[in-house]
TrEMBL record:
Residues 328-350 are annotated as: Disordered. The chain crosses the membrane at residues 27-45. PANTHER family: OS06G0731900 PROTEIN, OS07G0564800 PROTEIN. This is Lysine ketoglutarate reductase trans-splicing related 1. The lineage of its organism: Eukaryota, Viridiplantae, Streptophyta, Embryophyta, Tracheophyta.
Amino acid sequence: MRDFKAWRKKLDHPDGGGNTLKMKRQLPFMGAACVVMLFIVYRTTNYQYQQTEMEEKRDPFDTGEGAERDYRKLNDLPRGIIEARSDLERKPLWTSGSNSKSYATHSNLLAIAAGIKQKNNVNTMVQKFLPENFTVVLFHYDGNVDGWFSFGWAHDAIHIVAQNQTKWWFAKRFLHPNIVSIYDYIFLWDEDLGVEHFDPQRYLDIVRSEGLEISQPALDPKSQDIHHRITVRRRTNIFHRRVYENRGSTNCSNESTGPPCTGFIEGMAPVFSRAAWYCAWHLIQNDLVHGWGMDMKLGYCAQGDRREKVGVVDREYIFHKGIQTLGETPSRKVSPDRRQQRHPSLDTRTEIRRQSTHELQIFEERWAKAVREDEDWVDPTVTFRKN
């Protein structure tokens, strides 16, 4: 009881409440200090945000911890001198005189893996794209470049040569997102497509108006090698996003949420927006060159719900000729005796199919492993399905 009274007396005594008074006097100072600190934090955060925005505008693909590590390797250079991106536009060696030429900047890219045997068909394809402001890149898998220069446009195209390599091998090495970031759309096409009923500009008008990030022209029903019914042209449609089918193990209905019923295009004539290609390029495996199975996963690169962002354009369609040329040995005269002596194991088409099947299995195993090990990854298709 004495202790309690002593405590009350100390609290009521002017000297006993000194600490409280002192704290009251310090409150305005502490408040001002907090305001100053908040202002400093705000200015610092705002400055960092503005710097980040400026860097993303300049280098939109250089983000994340990996990019920061790469930038540290450039510490010996002044930051302002760094050009993180390039393009596939040719530059003049001189800009004055009678031999000077104006080099235009193109807004879209057409890349074709091409062999000399399909020279005339590729010429027909390119002629469709040239008037529509396209940069043309030819991936020469047969090593023959000189044979193309009978076409005037070939002198302005970009030629990349590597013997017996696939379209995906070339794309992974020469169409890095930082290189092709100036192009709105990337057409990564095979060489055996008939384009009699295809107009690139009308096609892109449809793609833009419908918000398709990944697309392909529909296939003429008379085409060779039609593997999935969703790619077949519908005469009365402008475009379509899904197919209805109930055959064998395939059951496609309104309830279907993924390939090959919806959110799917095949690999012979894909068209990617800039953002979709950034994702697709990272999906391409460095060592799995045939790309089998990748078309089933491209919907993850659709920048949204693949049921809405992936589609097949019916109004502008193509004819797939299904010509198999990759893996052929260079043409040369072989005696009949030598032909009879060839061992069946040297059938390159059979070997290619076997390798493709093997790569498909590896890709599926890698996907399953990556999903299993990435604890932070959430399948976006499940979220879209719930919505």
